[in-house]
TrEMBL record:
Gene3D superfamilies the record matches: Protein tyrosine phosphatase superfamily
InterPro entries given in the database record: Dual-sp_phosphatase_cat-dom, Prot-tyrosine_phosphatase-like, Tyr_Pase_AS, Tyr_Pase_dom, TYR_PHOSPHATASE_DUAL_dom
Keyword Hydrolase: yes
A GO molecular-function descriptor: protein tyrosine/serine/threonine phosphatase activity
Every Tyrosine specific protein phosphatases domain range: 101-159
Superkingdom of this protein's organism: Eukaryota
Organism of this sequence: Arabis nemorensis
PROSITE patterns from the UniProt entry: TYR_PHOSPHATASE_1, TYR_PHOSPHATASE_2, TYR_PHOSPHATASE_DUAL
Family: Belongs to the protein-tyrosine phosphatase family. Non-receptor class dual specificity subfamily.
Protein's UniProt name: protein-tyrosine-phosphatase
Keyword entries, A-Z: Hydrolase, Protein phosphatase
Domain (Tyrosine-protein phosphatase) ranges: 43-182
Top-level EC class: hydrolase
EC numbers, comma separated: 3.1.3.48
Length: 345
């Protein structure tokens, strides 16, 4: 029997079989033919649009290519008309039920779609079993629309439906809560998640998506903004970093915040300098930047050289590195404070 649970007025949570009957969804596989093969139903469909991560011809595609950790070239989402007389609008996103899968970057897209469907007639959110992926999306929807904390939203949905989001999705919902129920890409919380996701993807295929390199602060003129702290090469005074690109960490504490999402991503850390509580940080850890040419070569580790005078400023290591304070940072893009001048305008 299909799983179909009424969560609030108009939004439903269901499984694959329910979606085959009703056809409106957040789906693991974007092909409409999946329903035909599974339920032996013949469906008419008409594509509205498909958006790919990093697609220069689409504003959303460009945004997600540069700002998210979603892999460039992959399908972001598809929209189509389907069902009898093509009266049903269907949105599909590609998301495996894996603890490491980035569901966070789909939240705003899907929640906006649910909002529209709910105001019109009704909307079914589903995955295969209706317990993890689609449940996480509905929980996020309740959190955003009713300003519920994760624990309260989860308890509320369990009054109507048996759900069990995987630990990685629960952690992403926790981050969603910390960002005040939105995906704030300027937030340090999101930036840490994004860098961890990129590190995990690198650990799987040893490739880095070049679109994820952050803007060179000298080229973007960010360093001219009043009140901005910048980091300059000590030798040639070339701006190499702005404060907004620094990834802060807590001295002497293990970097464990995202273990529930990205468990077992790490290899052996090559820098074994464990430091200690009494030692201050002698370096800063940063987002990968567009002047870091060595990173583009898909090397697992290497030196970071000033793009102007080629002086060594630091190093990077996808397996991570220890700070002098004892914190283990994974992955690590590290500039030595002895090699740069810190300037506040």
């Amino acid at each position: 029997m299909p799983k179909l649970d009424l969560i609030r007025e108009n939004p439903f949570l269901g499984d694959f079989c329910a979606a085959a009957d009703i056809l409106k969804n957040v789906l693991h596989c974007p092909s409409i033919s999946t329903f035909e093969e599974w339920r032996n139903v013949k469906l008419d469909s008409k594509e509205i649009k498909e958006v790919y991560v990093g697609d220069d011809g689409d504003e959303q595609g460009r945004e997600f290519g540069k700002e998210s950790s979603l892999v460039s070239g992959n399908l972001l989402y598809s929209l189509e008309h389907t069902g009898k007389d093509l009266k049903i609008t269907r949105m599909a996103v590609f998301a495996h039920d894996e603890h490491w899968k980035n569901l966070l970057d789909y939240f705003d897209l899907c929640l906006d779609f649910i909002d529209v469907g709910r105001k019109e007639k009704g909307v079914l959110v589903h995955c295969f079993a209706g317990q993890s992926r689609s449940a996480s999306m509905v929980i996020a929807y309740l959190m955003r629309t009713e300003k519920l904390y994760l624990e309260d939203a989860l308890a509320s949905i369990r009054q109507s439906s048996h759900v069990s989001p995987n630990p990685g999705f629960l952690k992403q919902l926790e981050l969603f809560e910390k960002m005040s129920f939105k995906v704030d890409r300027s937030s340090p919380i999101y930036k840490r998640f994004c860098l961890k996701a990129l590190g995990y993807l690198y650990s799987k295929d040893k490739k880095f998506d070049k679109l994820k390199l952050r803007t060179d602060p000298e080229i973007s003129n960010e360093s001219s903004s009043n009140g901005t702290t910048t980091y300059q090469c000590k030798k040639c005074k070339r701006v190499v970093l702005s404060q907004e690109q620094v990834m802060n960490h807590t001295p002497s504490e293990a970097d464990l915040e995202f273990d529930a999402v990205f468990a077992n991503m790490n290899g052996d850390v090559h820098n074994k300098n464990l430091g200690g509580e009494e030692q201050q940080c002698t370096s800063v850890f940063v987002e990968p930047l567009s002047w870091m040419n060595q990173v583009e070569e898909d090397l697992s580790e290497g030196k970071l050289l000033c793009p102007k005078c080629k002086t060594r400023l630091g190093s990077f290591d996808w397996s991570g590195s220890y700070c002098s304070c004892g914190s283990k940072i994974v992955p690590a893009f590290q500039l030595q404070l002895s090699r740069v001048d810190v300037i506040t305008l």
